[in-house]
Every structure is written in C-alpha cells, then in structure tokens.
Amino acid sequence: MEWLNILIVEDETPLAEMHAEFIKQNGGCRQIWLAGTLAQARTMTERFKPDLILLDNFLPDGQGIELLRELTLQGYGGGIVFITAASDMDTVAEALRYGVFDYLIKPLAYDRLAQTLQRFSQRREALKDKARVNQRRIDEMFNTYARGGDQAALPTGIDELTLMKIRALFEDPQVRHTAESVAQQIGLSRTTARRYLEFFSANDQLVAEIIYGKVGRPQRIYRSANND
C-alpha cells in the first residue's frame, strides 16, 4: 500500500487518536495530523496538503460537509472519507455529489476503514499509470465491484466455523463482549477476534459501543443488534 499523508478531522480527541493508532499499526501511513475544528482543518489542509482527509460531519464550528464542498470547488487534489454518525440520505447524497471517496458510519468498523485505505491507495497508484486501461481496471478505480458468482462468499480471513462460534456467544441479547473476552473464550488472538467482531458489526449483526474509561485507551464493547 502506498504511503499516505492523512489528516483526521474529529473533535473527540480520544476517538481521533484511536483512528490514528489503528492507521499507524496497519502501515501505509507517512504522516498523520489531527484537527478538532473546521478552522483547524482548513488551515492544516492548506499548509500540509494531505493525500487523504478522514472527515467527521459534526464539528464545534460547523459541518464537515461544508469543508468537503469548499475543497471540491477549490480543486483539492486529495481524497476525502466521511467518518460520521450522520446517516440521513440528504447528507449521504450531498457527500456523493461532491465526490467523497467513501462514507463510513460511526461507530467505525476498523476492518472497513482498512479496506477503504487500501482501495484509496490502489486508486492513487492506478492514476499514476499512463498506460491504457480495461473496463475491469476502471471498475476497480471507481469502486464499482460487479461481483460475479456467489454473493454470499465470505471475505478472505473469515471462516464460517469461527463465525458460528462467535455468533453463539451473543445468543443472549444482554451479553457484552470485548475482543479480549472473545479471544479468550474461542481461543483466538485478540487481532483475529477483533476482525470477526468488526465483520459482524459491519453487517449489522453486532453493535459496537466505545467506552471511555478514566485510565487507558477507549474500549470497544460489542453486543447483539437484536436488542435495539
């Protein structure tokens, strides 16, 4: 994956730091900056010219969609990914209209973010290629993955048997688990357990809640979506 300079625009500092830590641990990042307001984001975008902006919509001095609109009209050459709790169709439609690269709804599934970063990096690499491209290559660049064959095929690294074991842990709607507790009960590494939990979360089978303790990093707690 290409090395990227990334600006994270998020007013909740612990959450912004979680995003940054995840990106650093997964590689592909040269530099990360954090901005907590639209004003800071404007200043840092102009100064550092990041390759990619991870943008929240609800900020103390306005909405991220304003910055997306401004940068698009200014001809900003980088990419923008919305990471926000805003799930209304008007916001989604406007983000698409102004060319957002991806739209991720909070609470963020980090496996999903990893996929987005990889696709963005791949698109940047593809755009550097001066050769002619075929339709499949164009589809990849525009994220229009027309998948043939079995639509229910599981992604790489996700095993059906392990999915069943983890799903069984959440049969009681009142149960709460962390990646650590799932890893201990199933006999997995914490990283692997988190991958499966985020898969369930991305498919709306589990709900991920971020708990901020007095000491240490925020913790992700997972529960069944059936008790909503």
Report the helical percentage: 40-55%
Shape: globular
How many strand units? 10
Q: How does the major sheet shape up?
A: 5 strands, parallel
- Uncertain ranges: 144-152
Q: How would you sum up this structure, described in words?
A:
The structure is a single chain. The chain is of the alpha/beta class and 228 residues long. 44% of the residues lie in helices and 20% in strands. The protein has nine helices and ten strands. It has a five-stranded parallel β-sheet, with helices on both faces. Strands 8-10-9 form a three-stranded antiparallel β-sheet. It has a two-stranded antiparallel ribbon with strand order 4-5. Helix 1 links the parallel strand 1 and strand 2. Helix 8 packs across helix 9. It starts with a strand and ends with a strand.
Write a concise synopsis of the structure shown:
The chain has nine helices and ten strands. The protein has 228 residues and is α/β, with parallel strands linked by helices.
List the keywords.
228 residues, alpha/beta, five-stranded parallel β-sheet, 44% helix, 20% strand, transcription
Chain-wise SSE layout:
Blueprint: E1 4-9, H1 13-25, E2 29-35, H2 38-48, E3 52-55, E4 58-59, E5 62-63, H3 64-74, E6 79-84, H4 89-97, E7 102-105, H5 110-128, H6 135-141, H7 160-169, E8 176-177, H8 179-186, H9 190-202, E9 206-211, E10 219-224
Parallel strand pairs: 1-2, 1-3, 3-6, 6-7
Antiparallel strand pairs: 4-5, 8-10, 9-10
Helix pairs in contact: 8-9
Domain Response regulatory: 5-121
Pfam family, one: HTH_64
Organism: Serratia silvae
